[in-house]
Amino acid sequence: MPVAGMITEYNPLHYGHVHLLEETRRRLGPETGILCVMSGNFVQRGDFALTDKWSRAAAAVRSGADLVLELPLPWATASAGGFATGAVKTLRATGLVTHLVFGSEGGDAAPLVRLAEALGSAEFGQALRRELTRGDSFAAARQRAAASLLSPEDAAPLARPNDLLAVEYCGALRGSGIQALAISRRGSGHDGGQTDGFSASAIRALIRQGDEGRALELMAPAMAEAYREERAAGRAPVFAETCERAILARLRFMDEADFAAMDPGREGLYHRFFRAVPSAASLAELLEAVKTKRYPLARLRRMVLWAYLGLSPAPPEAPSYLRPLALNDRGRVLLAAMRDSAALPVLTKPAAVRRLSPDAQDLFHLEARASGLYALAFPDPAAGLSEWQRGPVILRS
């Protein structure tokens, strides 16, 4: 049986994700098992997830996935390369995945694989160093360097957020034996603003603006139902602004060296943050003061999130356990097989983490502390359960 791996934030699950799930089984066969790696309570664009990871994982299973594993916090909130590397290593560690399925603008994995190979070459490193001397953004320099080795058309995916992640996935797959399978995506981009049903950011914006009805129409049915249930329980919607003063207080307590640690490229961003933080009265005001055309907003949000959660910009080499969040009957079969095939411990009961390695224990404790901070952004902060009280959501056929 083919086992397709997917990597997603599911923030929130929209029809583009459902299309990807349906198209995977159309391509690989109806008996294909689908194993997702999903961001937890904090996501790669540097934000709080709209609802918690358990509700989103269950919605993913109700929408067609079979087993959802958590991408641990250090990789879920990393840059595109760290995010992709951690997610692919998680999928590889299961010992089950035969294909990595992802959405892309062109729907063809071959040019993305070629581009990933070019980015991993020694010639690219030399070309990138030359381009960086021109003084504009790293992203622009990288795209020109790639174009100098291939062509401007071949390098164009680096300018598109979804294709950029796809290229990172292809690079992380090298030597894994897992086949890349690209499916043409629908709708607006990864962090796009169109309200056409395919942009998670647009759905979140509608909820912020008070148009919850329209937002629910744009969510996949399972996610819309999960959102309603979480809202009724006092656990949704979740926005970073709810914890705004706590985040600003943490930033005001930092000195310039602390900000420098959040800026590994030493491109001067930490100076801008250090100067802006003392007077910023909101997160929006802070980001407005720091941003320039050189830096994408997601990068700035990630730096704020790293500081708030006490994270390093560089995640560890690899996750130290596999943690299921939700599964169905076919997922139970995958989970049973994974217990024999996995290269990492499979953690279904939180208490069992005490029997794992020190690295695994440290990672779980980090997740637990971060989830405690996430719960403070619930409409009812007392409504959540701790990481130590949660096992996977099991859905029966």
Description:
The chain has helices at 15-28, 53-62, 73-76, 80-94, 109-119, 122-132, 138-149, 152-155, 161-172, 200-208, 212-218, 221-232, 244-252, 256-261, 269-276, 283-290, 297-309, 329-341, 358-375, and strands at 3-8, 33-39, 42-43, 47-48, 67-71, 99-104, 179-184, 324-327, 393-394. The chain is α/β, with parallel strands linked by helices. It folds into 2 domains: 3-114 and 181-236 and 315-394, HUPs (Rossmann fold), CATH 3.40.50.620; 241-309. The protein has a 7-stranded mixed sheet, with helices on both faces. The protein has a two-stranded antiparallel sheet with strand order 3-4. Helix 2 runs antiparallel to helix 12 and helix 13 (244-252) packs across helix 17.
Order of helices and strands: EHEEEHEHHEHHHHHEHHHHHHHHEHHE
- Report on the biggest sheet: 7 strands, mixed
What is the CATH fold-level name of the largest domain?
Answer: Rossmann fold
> Looking at the chains present, what oligomeric state does this protein adopt?
single chain
The portion of residues assigned to helices is: 40-55%
Q: How large is the count of helical segments? A: 19
Number of β-strand runs: 9
Mean pLDDT: 92
N/C terminus separation: 19 Å
CATH class of the largest domain: Alpha Beta
- The secondary structure category is alpha/beta
The strands making up the biggest β-sheet line up spatially as 7-6-1-2-5-8-9
CATH superfamily of the largest domain: HUPs
Low-confidence stretches: 188-197
